[in-house]
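Narrative summary of target 7.
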Amino acid sequence: MDGIVPETLRVAAVQPFSPLDFPGRLAAVFFLAGCPWRCPYCHNPELQRRGRGGLPWPRLAAWLEARRGLLDAVVISGGEPTASPHLSALAAALRARGFAVGLHSAGAVPERLAAALPYLDWVGFDVKAPFAAYARITGRTRSGDAARRALDILRESGVAHEIRTTLDPALLDEAALLALARDLARHGVRHWVLQARAEGGRAAPLDLSPALIAALRAEVPEIAFRH
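Modeled conformation, tokenized:
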């Protein structure tokens, strides 16, 4: 697969080592710039727009060669990685070099997710709201349709994954969270991670009543909480 990544590809930033971004693996994280959505709680807003800067693929390929035996995996994040036409080529090149490949995505471009899945070992998939209410968070019409298609593509692929939702009470009240749980249940989701939004560099507290948690678990049996 060497040479399939265009030399024009730029990776906006690299986190050299992360024990958290790929379960059970020590990974580097490659951040791709560009995202069609504008979520208010975005933790990398500087990566929403495509920029001219960044690290070219040949330099990154050499960097990875020097880290063989130190890294288990590379996670592709963003921004929104499916916004890049080079996502599947990058994933394939990483896999060809012997690294497990992870992806953090909200599935904004389902067709590119589908093309990349054969080269992925794990996906962290962000579901933002009930699919009918996506535009309120993303600022884009039909974004819920894209997310729904991407979720189905991921679920049908057999690739290991985590379904997760960032909780922002200003955007997801109890009724919306219950509606989302029902949406996920209809799509066969049995495991769900609820995570706190970032607030001033720290995670905001999760404030869910026992009754709400019970109602959510009636739809999606296995729910974990991440602070």
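DSSP finds seven helices and twelve strands in the chain.
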